[in-house]
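Notes continue from the previous slide.

Worked example: a multi-chain complex. Inputs as given:
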Amino acid sequence: MSYKYAYNTRDIKFILKEWLPLDDVLSWDRYKDYYSKDDVDVLVDQVRKVAEEIVAPTADDADKIGARWEDGKVYLPPSFHGAIKFLQEQGWGASTFDFEAEGGIPLTIYFLLWEMLSAANPGMMSYVSNGGAVANVIYHYAQDYLKEMFLPDLYAGTWGGSMCLTEPSVGSDVGGLLTKAIPTDDPRIYKIKGQKIFITVGDRDDIDQVVHLVLARVEGAAPGTKGLSLFITPKLWVNEDGSLTPNDVQTAGIEHKLGLKGSATCQLVFGEENNCRGWLMGPAPDENGVGMGIVQMFNMMNEARLDTGRLALAVTANAYWNAKDYGKDRVQGNLLSNPKAGKVSINQHEDVKRMYLLNKATTEACRALLAKCYYYEDAREFAPTPEKRKWAQDKLDMLTPLCKAYPSDEAWGLIAESLQSYGGYGYCEDYPAANSARDCKIWSIWEGTNYIQALDLIGRKWMQKKGTLFAGILGEIDEFLAENKGKLPGLEQEMAHLEKALGAYRQTQMAIGKYVQSGKVGLMATYARRILTATAQLYCGYLLLDQAKIALARMEELGSDHYDYNFYLGKIFSTRYYLNNAVPNVWHTLELVQIGDTSCMEAPVEIFEY
Amino acid sequence: MSYKYAYNTRDIKFILKEWLPLDDVLSWDRYKDYYSKDDVDVLVDQVRKVAEEIVAPTADDADKIGARWEDGKVYLPPSFHGAIKFLQEQGWGASTFDFEAEGGIPLTIYFLLWEMLSAANPGMMSYVSNGGAVANVIYHYAQDYLKEMFLPDLYAGTWGGSMCLTEPSVGSDVGGLLTKAIPTDDPRIYKIKGQKIFITVGDRDDIDQVVHLVLARVEGAAPGTKGLSLFITPKLWVNEDGSLTPNDVQTAGIEHKLGLKGSATCQLVFGEENNCRGWLMGPAPDENGVGMGIVQMFNMMNEARLDTGRLALAVTANAYWNAKDYGKDRVQGNLLSNPKAGKVSINQHEDVKRMYLLNKATTEACRALLAKCYYYEDAREFAPTPEKRKWAQDKLDMLTPLCKAYPSDEAWGLIAESLQSYGGYGYCEDYPAANSARDCKIWSIWEGTNYIQALDLIGRKWMQKKGTLFAGILGEIDEFLAENKGKLPGLEQEMAHLEKALGAYRQTQMAIGKYVQSGKVGLMATYARRILTATAQLYCGYLLLDQAKIALARMEELGSDHYDYNFYLGKIFSTRYYLNNAVPNVWHTLELVQIGDTSCMEAPVEIFEY
């Protein structure tokens, strides 16, 4: 078996029990009678077990059998059926998003559990998650009769869901999409006509119904994104008596991908026989032809962006833990720093430790970033006051592009280092790293490419509410530095690097501002992706130091003989590595921005012939 | 067809006709009556045609059919047979290494032609090249009777070759290998017993004979690398009458790899029936048990290291040129810097241009580095004076680790950017980027991992001959700066960056020297790979500026209306991009080294459990 589940739960427990304000979460009305901090260990251990015993055994089928398309239908690897059903039935699927049911698990916890499941078979999890994501949009935006019609089955997982955005000619440029919605006699219902591609789990054979959320333009509505509306367009039309009949949605094929082969990436044709109907969600386009579609879609899209980062993190961390397991047993060579000690296991070589520490530090950084946002996702929905809900939404808005792009950008390089640490075996599919590398590459592309994320960050989020929201993110770091400077023994250099990086980052913002003002907006585009990375490194550097603060206290308390000491010590090493190796990139990026190389702006396309 | 050959020849012609001292090469005895500069265009165009029409059509079979292993035999994709034979017969194969034949093509030219062929089907080319590489070792080190026995068929390509080094328990730690050589009554012949893995094209069905060069230890010889000897161990024993009989070499299996699937990566068992014989190459181990094996093997290994860099470059450049072809036709979105101009092809977007320019600049940098070394390879063999041959060998020694590691490290990130530029299509195997990504990953591992290359550079090459040889490499940059400062209009900032990088690099050397002296050799290991990258960036920055100097003169001469102007203009853009975006990493690396993070040295392995 080439795929191996190697997830460790300790950091997840630390985040929930010692780092995030879980007491706050558990005091909210929705949760207070149902959950306590003591449940964390049980939940995490239970889901770890499910991930390993129920989900992970399907991972090889994902890659070797893959989703198949035959005669217009998608077939999952047979082993998926039972695993998906199990997850739904046990409450790890869409039912979490039934916000009106009692006893729902706190989202803060849920998404961290989901990370463990994702690592076990990343491609399969979309079959489990997409119904919930679709339900969530319907819950927030649809009319009551639509909620009644669709939510129960979506929550139960007996119906699936998909998000239909991309078309053959339109990906990043959403505003240009061509799918049409034609009014019918019933103002609630439109005829849908168009082609959608890259539709994740757009068809499946484990259940009959897939509820597609289709972004389309009502005839005559405004051009661009503002003219778009969202239509609940089920694969099977729901008749008044509840019976289901085909709705002229054809699956024209699936993609043959580098990885993530268990997840069917579908080409869908809506209304080829002019007989596809969709329910308009929310109001019709207004008198200016402006629809609600893009706003509604972004609700799902933002969830999907966090989900993307989580998938990337999960697969990267699993690759790393597999690599370090291999490194414990593989004996090879003498230590450069102590050649006389004889042959050692490779996990003792400095360069191998560097590859591990790079992975450990960066995955912990990503997990901290994402976990913080899970808390915000939870708070924007369930915090007791509107102010706090708004506060959480604002924080989430600022950090979402980082959550999507940073883990998915890093995954490629990190998994390559895990793979490298095996030597030649890493290149063989019998070992897990190759599969992880193939799986991860889509995440820098889908749900808005990482360049789109970078533009969202720099071109929108930086400026939103006159820059006050993003200034609040940087302000957290100011506060942390003010509170903790001189108080983290052994991490003085690391604190200094955080401070230096924060200053450099603000200068970077100013430099980009000046470029834009002087008409060199092309420089913003040129440096956007690098600045996004630097942003994540700055913010994650702060988060790791914030965690290290707790770790230092716990180490003091436990003493080095305690069985749990090494976890906290590891946290210190992650912090040291990250602040001394990744965070300097923040001011290095400033320097690149200041160089202000205009070659990408000025290069005529003809030179790329050579 | 997913694989597409998109190679452009212009930079190769530029390198040969305008940049490298080809006049010098063509004045050497071996070449002067046979070749002139006028032949370059014809040769390049001809091989480009062979690559596209004969080799590239086999690439899809490489990936989709792959090499198969059945009942102890390796079968190539059927289309390989004709293509391999064609290349051999037309003189693009092993016959180039017949240094005593008349009319041999200059190596300087040959290796650049080979780059084009490699891009067309990288996995297949090992079947063509390995026989030549084995012949080359035999030519330089073997006794005359062995030359007579093996060289003619190897040169003709009717026999293949392999290099047998790695064993299941031994990869990087060559000195630990276990294969034994047991003396027989004939002092020239030993019984060989052992297992070798990861043997590239170790078996094949297009020809019967494979001549294995097996690294083994004569019983009783010294431990470690110095006790090793090299044995010509053919798959079929060559009897005195020239007939061939099985030599107890079994192919126990092949690896299932991430990519490069056409190239059979074999597990070989020598002497399972105690009946495998090998010819000792050169003298037997001396009275101290010291053999010649590792020295001889390194002759082939160093060739293989350049070959690795060339393969990585070829696949990366082909992926880039495919991407830019796609980008010309794909219309998507409005320009950030000029939104009112309407929808544009994606190759006009700044971030896409950045991905292309990053690829263009870095592949041109790698090609310049490798091409310079092809010249040294040529000169060390055929330059008229021993002094010049020695000079070329020394240069080659210094630059070999860069040639192997830099292109193979960069390939992964560069191809990811080519892939990214397609959007979702990049992740689909119907487009060529995914295949290129899978193919390229082995090159950072085989022929000595890139960490081994980095240690070779920093731990050996820096110090060789008291540091004078490597100082000579840096001295080239001093000279270039002294000669050209203020003389490259428009590239003043770029020249300043080169100068700053050179200074920073020398400080990096001093910093590492101090760490080693103060017992912190672990810091050398920690930063080795990053310093290797910085070394390549420094040296390639110089090479690109050296090329830009020619380009500036040619642009002046031709004027912007000339059909060839854009090639030279592109060279300027490559130089600008590289010096403003890659070369600053040289001083950024210095800063990281100066931070001197000891976390990789100090981290106990226990922390990697989390």
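Summary box: Chain A has a mean pLDDT of 96. The longest strand of chain A covers residues 189-200.
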